Amino acid sequence: MSPTRPRDTLSLPMPAHHSQNTVLAEPRALELDRADPLAHFRASFHIPRSGDILAAMGKPAPAKPDQPCVYLCGNSLGLMPKFTRSAVVQELDDWSRLGVEGHFHAKHPWYPTHEFVRDTAARLVGALPHEVVAMNSLTVNLHLMMATFYRPTQARHAIIIEDSAFPSDSYAVQSQAAHHGLNPASTIIRLKPRDGEHTLRTQDFLEALNQHAPRTALILLGGVNYLTGQVMDFASITAHARSLNIPIGWDLAHAAGNIPLHLHQWGADFACWCTYKYLNSGPGAVAGCFVHERHTANVTLPRLAGWWGNDPKTRFRMTSDFIPVATADAWSLSNPPVLALAPVRASLEIFDHATMPALRQKSEQLTAYLQELIDAIPSAATALRIITPRDPSSRGCQISLAVLDRPRELHAALSASGVVCDFREPNVIRVAPVPLYNTFHDCWRFATILKTHLASPA
User: Fold this and answer.
1) Virtual CA dihedral for 13, 18, 20, 21, nearest 10 degrees?
2) Which of 130, 174, 266, 372 is 20 to 30 Å from 9 at the Cα level?
3) Listed residues 338, 353, 368: the one ending a domain
4) Over the stretch 231-289, which tens digit does the pLDDT of each residue have?
5) With pLDDT > 70 as the criterion, what percentage of the chain qualifies?
6) Which domain does 43 fall in, by range?
7) Distance of CA 185 to the CA centre of its chain
8) Rounded to whole angstroms, how far apart are CA atoms 253 and 236?
9) Interatomic CA distance for residues 129 and 55, integer angstroms
10) What CATH number is given to the structural domain containing 144?
């Protein structure tokens, strides 16, 4: 994604007398929340209480146990929409009342249940409805896509990924190489940032593709880097890969529901995403998959086939001949998990109401404000480094902090103070203000707690 406007931070309302004290003042956060047109969506979610979390962890109760925690971990697991419970209970009730007849007579009939999320998922990722399917889990879908699009030859067999790709992506491509009898160490090309930098430049991507094109069979990149929060330049990288005739796929685990996507327009061959992070569909929720329409009608493509990928017109003839349906459904294997898809449907409806452009605008404002708060903490300059791009348009809703001294202890101290964020080895604390349910006041509370612990480390 290319920055849409040159700036380091968004313009946020600033008190007349700008100082560290005014930046860190609580009334400013409350003012920003009052002006937020998306503020009402927070009421659609269950916000965990600090007391409940700390009690579950066996830690002392906070001074205000009923106070909502500062939940800044939507990049790991999104919060539960309040409608999710009734959506799941509806399926259980239909099962109890109708038994097998629920496949066609439940409130949301089970036979086509995956179709109920198709249009909303397509809008979310910028795809045509027939290019999208909800199925499996993220890494399973990556393997299914690579079974089709990774076709190594003696001359072209390399796979290009980021050096800081999420570990499961590394495991997946290494095992794919080994499955084809190749040496993963020489097959996988890992792209690293320049010395002294934390993120990859678009130009570095393009030059690496040029350099390795003669031996590359597949490119698999994370759309938003899980560690730094960097948003990749989808359009430029995808276009360049296609100009070199190299299949390209995107892992959108940290991008779907985080940034606006235009998969059909960009022309990627495939993309996969999970729905339990920014899409708030519950732990281990059903994932999503995109296959560009130039591939969906190609019945000659190699694939790992299953019953649900067969054309519905012939599915119940129960023959041994596989006839792929001319949609992304052709890559699905088994009938969809009804109970697990209900939370996906509930969450995607919220995104349809909020819209990704509006969410993205608030996201950039939240991270700009959070960055400003952290910069205003006097001790932060010597205690930590922000490794996320400083331009809000070049990052998702995440600020990653490389802590220079006793990072685990700082994370533990934040947790004990009612902050939920996560820690990644060796020293990175990831802080993710999610626009659907996080507030500017959440950012202020985090910065206030961080300032306290930087001044008096645990």
Assistant:
1) -90
2) 266
3) 353
4) 999 999 999 999 999 999 999 999 999 999 999 999 999 999 999 999 999 999 999 99
5) 95
6) 20-68+356-455
7) 28
8) 20
9) 44
10) 3.40.640.10
- Choosing from 353, 386, 405, the residue where a domain stops is 353
Residue 12 pLDDT: 59
Do 417 and 284 lie in a common domain?
no
Domain total in the chain: 2
Residue 1 belongs to a domain: no
CATH number, domain of 61, equals 3.90.1150.10
Q: Is residue 25 part of a domain?
A: yes
Specify if 244 maps to a domain: yes
Q: CA of 280: how far to CAs of 275, 283, 284, 427, in Å?
A: 6, 9, 11, 27
Contacts of 296 (CB under 8 A, 6+ apart): 130, 131, 326, 327, 328, 330
Per the structure block, which two tokens stand in for 457?
Answer: 């480390």
Statement to judge: residues 283 and 390 lie in one domain: no
The burial of 28, by beta-carbon neighbours within 10 Å (0-12 exposed, 13-18 middle, 19 or more buried), is given as buried
345 shares its domain with 362? no
Residue 18 has pLDDT above 60, yes or no: no
Task: Give the integer Cα–Cα distance in Å for 292 and 265.
Answer: 10
Q: pLDDT grade, residue 455 (50/70/90)?
A: confident
Least confident of 52-61, 217-226, 424-433: 52-61
- The answer on 280 and 221 residing in a single domain is yes
Structure tokens at 223: 């759309």
For residues 274 and 253, the answer to whether their CB atoms sit within 8 Å is yes
Same domain, 329 and 362: no
As a three-state string, the secondary structure of the chain is: CCCCCCCCCCCCCCCCCCCHHHHCCHHHHHHHHHCCCCHHHHHHECCCEHHHHHHHCCCCCCCCCCCECEECECCCCCCCECHHHHHHHHHHHHHHHHHHHHHHHCCCCCCCHHHHHHHHHHHHHCCCHHHEEECCCHHHHHHHHHHHHCCCCCCCCEEEEECCCCHHHHHHHHHHHHHCCCCHHHHEEEECCCCCCCCCCHHHHHHHHHHHHHHEEEEEEECECCCCCEECCHHHHHHHHHHCCCCEEEECCCCCCCCCCCHHHHCCCEEEECCCCCCCCCCCCCCEEEECHHHHCCCCCCCCCCHHHECHHHHCCCCCCCCECCCHHHHCCCCCCHHHHHHHHHHHHHHHHHCHHHHHHHHHHHHHHHHHHHHCCCCHHHHEEECCCCCHHHECCCEEEEECCCHHHHHHHHHHCCEECEEECCCEEEEECCCCCCCHHHHHHHHHHHHHHHHCCC
The answer to whether position 336 is within a domain reads yes
